[in-house]
Amino acid sequence: PGKDNDELDLELVVHYLMCPPEYDALSYCWGTDAPTVKVEFPADGEFVTTLIRPNLAAAIRRLRLPDRARFVWVDAICINQTDDKEKSLQIPKMATIYERATRVCVWLGEEKDDSALALSFIKNDMLDLGQIDALVNEKGTERAWTALSKLMRRPWFSRRWIIQEIVYAKEAILYCGNDAIDWTDFADAVTLFADYEIQWKLASRMKGHRLLGRDLDYFSDVQALGATRLVEATSNLFRYDESWRVTQKFRSLEYLVSSLSVFKASQPHDTIYAIMGLAKDYWFLEAPSKTQSAEGEPLEQPQVYEADYSKPAHIVFQDFVDFVIRTSKSLDIICRPWAPDDIEQLPSWITTLKAAAFETQTGGRCTRINADSLVGLPGIMATTYNASGSRLPVWNIESISSPGQGIRTGHSLIVQGVMIDTVQEVKLPAHEGIVPSDWLEFGGWTDRSAAPPEELWRTLVANRGPDGTNMPTYYRRACKHALLHGLEGGGLHTNRILAECSSSIVAKFLRRVQAAAWMRRLCKTTTSTLGLVPKNTREGDLICILYGCSVPVILRKIECDGLRPEACSFCNRSALKCVYNHCTHELPKKEFYYKFIGECYVSGKMD
């Protein structure tokens, strides 16, 4: 207990999780500041001295009561963060810890950037649905909307662990400085703010406002912010009972890892470990013994998994890819960006977040940096494309060693498929969403009075509408309008046109062009077919369809010096043993291998 700047008075108390006292669980952002706040507390009859981070110290001061003790579970204190074995044991219990807490207390940080105004705006104005249209359309609310947008960009909303912490909370309260708000009220406000019509009206009204400076399209990223994604996740990924307890999980681990990349983890292992407790196809300790439904139908059995922080991150990631291919019967995971981009020894078939569509920049602004993944998200509907038809993947992961050196130099994913074409010529990428003007002539549009060629405009949108749906019939007409009226300075500046566009139809078409073409190259193959390929594609790269992958991919043949597998793919004996014991399986001579460049769109080859 204590007031204001009194010294922190803590005590570490051990209780069984099956019958704990009433307690709260803290959810907060560790921050980048070093642990500098010294705290002492009794534990097991001894006094323990440790350093905690300033943001945690601020959270404890805000939550403590002035006259009595308060039980709060805090990860940095209750788990030894330097002990990988202890962390591996505690990770499976995290969901239970937050589920059994009386409430989850979320600490967003101290008051700044008009955060008090933002919370007051939610509680006193936004939640009155009768006046929401007036708040959007009338002058005088610009500062409040901007304050809410800044609050939604706080670092806490980018943490990967918060998804589990909020999903399992019976009750959650957000604290920011001296203010607080119930999570359900905040979630309703975020949902309203992210509504497409409201967002469009606000973005149009706020262009050039003095509060936003030179930022012409400040509110355009609201739907991609972590706060919006968190509300969507808690609403759509699970089923709850009347007491807000999770009763059913809807999504696979593959879906969660692929769709929640906006949420970051301080440790690479937590890219997977922080959300696998939310997946329908993963169990931490033991699979359920029930194998049949009441009607006698076999039940899909989740896989047993144990977190292991002692494994190198690249091994954890390779194990994850292998698991996904086994459970999904698909290779699409190699096309989706999901892995942190600062991990060494990652093979090319583990796609990192450098290829992600959006990036969260300093200050919380979420901006597009690449096109959307062509394979889309798993398990929502039928796949967006169907390049490999009904062929299932045939794969194996092999370790590769360099002869004479005795060291492992990488890992190979052995797959089967067919080569369908070769890249003959590539154009510059659509950098920052600017479609180069030479794409048009390259695509066959030489007569500007005529409509753009069918293959060209379909390629610009990858022959699909938003989220993999069929294209609206107006795309051809919208394409011609945009190209005739928007070309300037050597290209089609999609962002500039969107910031000034008065036609919602043209705007929808241009956003689809951005989703399909941003930072991709327009290419022509040896069979004179148009396509969209990754920005690092070269002439001579191979276009292949891998069995089990829903889209074609770009592979590059790499010559090497006698690399060969450490183990036979079939009998699992070492390469040396197979050679000398006359294994009937012929080991491949690794005189070359293929580097995975990325997914691609090729006209006429997608279905």
Automatic annotation (TrEMBL):
Heterokaryon incompatibility domain ranges (all copies): 23-165
Domain of life of the native organism: Eukaryota
InterPro entries (UniProt xref): HET, HetReg/Transcr_Mod
One Pfam family linked to the record: HET
Name under which the protein is recorded: HET-domain-containing protein
Source organism per UniProt: Glonium stellatum
